[in-house]
Amino acid sequence: MQRCLVTSHDRAQLFAKHFGFCLLGRRPTPVPSPIHGPLVRLRNTPISEHPAPEHHPTSRRRLRACHECDWVMALPPLQPGQQACCIRCGGVLAKRNSLPVQRCLALAVSASIALIAAISFPFIRFSVRGIGNQIEVTQTATEMLAQHQPIVALMVLMAVFVLPALYLMAAIWVQISLLLPHRLPWSRTIARMLGHITPWMMADVFIVGTMVSLIKIAGLAEVSLGVSFWAFIAYALLLLATTLSLDSDWLWFSLSGGEPSAPEGIHTGATAASQNLAGCHTCGLIGRLDEHGHGSCERCGEKLHARKPRSLQYSWALLLTAAVLYIPANLYPIMYTTSLGSSDPNTIIGGVIYLASHGSWPVAIVIFVASVLVPIGKMLALAWLCLVAPRAPGMRSSTRTRLYRLTEFIGRWSMVDVFVVAILTALIRAGALMSVSPGPAALAFACVVILTMVAAMCFDPRLLWDEVSSAKIKGSDASIYDNQGRTP
Ligand SMILES: [Zn+2]
Ligand SMILES: [Zn+2]
Fold first, then answer.
1. What is the pTM of this model?
2. Fewer CB atoms < 10 Å away: N or C end of the chain?
3. What own/partner pairs with CB < 8 Å and gap ≥ 24 does 7-16 have?
4. Residue 468's pLDDT is what?
């Protein structure tokens, strides 16, 4: 693949040009392209909830079913820096990076080196009236364990160190495999793991937690930053860049030495479920389902479902559990601060009020947004989506899908307060003079964050489009699916 250095304006023009070529089937492409019209949208073009159905059979190559609305489209050839979006909901179907293997490998190796540096040197040093304490970054997890909070310690350890390290090793393994003439063992299993780990890596959220902690204690004690602090920032940024550089469409195309043909009789311009098909969420390939609406991807082995099984029931159950846990998370102290022998409990709201009353408005706003607005907003938004999914009211499906994307994106940022407690607990250990220990609300609040994240993952956004899809399917004499993906 050749590097393509163009401006964003040029990119749009190039994309439109390629789109036109592809419609006519003239342009030779590095990956197989369909013969007939690719029903994908270029970025910044209007989204249509009622794209014209196209029921002509296409070449059965490079077809995709949108993960968010289930619409079947054909991918156009992509140039580096371009991404193909769904014409109906705007969801990203595929993106192309220049030198995808080399770029991802270089970033993953750099992030791994930065991680090793981050856990090998002192992180932050704190001292008050001659009594000091210096911590390494991993002590934020081990100190929580020592304070009898093993579940919170495990969450911090997994989200900040273990899962990112696994992800980086997996990315390096898969990219090296792509560079070799023969694939390394377990490459497909490891590549499948990458997408499942990504939502649970929170090194970037930990950076925000560190900043908030530093501002909180800046006026109370002397703080100096160690080498590990800067290494950790580099690690978090490089990890983020690695996840963004991973071109999964290219990865699976290269791992499999091409793309298997899509099932016989497949049509673009209709939902996959209406044709008893489903798109793989890992590699994108469309596969045939059995009579119960289930199947498995022939390329990566991932399970396929017309709709996620019992999506609404799982989402409701997890949401209700999170709502119940949110009560103790606010009623009980999230941490205790000991100063000159007296111990004060701090609730989440109490902490926000304390910071605001002492003039730390920016930090107070960050904590208020992350710990109050985001969890409540996310629970309400998800509950509303679960309510409207089976009823399909007048609100546009694309608006509901955007709301779903937002709830998925913001959920993990609520972990800021949990990381603040972990960092302060590890750092401020000056005995009766000044120390911090976690309260019972830390566990409850961490569980709220994890449960709402899982609830959002269990929710199937394709349900938000099913009424629109059914109307289209009725018009084209295809099977009609209800909101659970079953034929009535
Ligand atoms: Zn879509
Ligand atoms: Zn697959």
1. 0.82
2. C
3. 11/79, 11/81, 11/82, 12/42, 12/43, 12/44, 14/79, 14/82, 15/42, 15/43, 15/79, 15/82, 16/42
4. 57
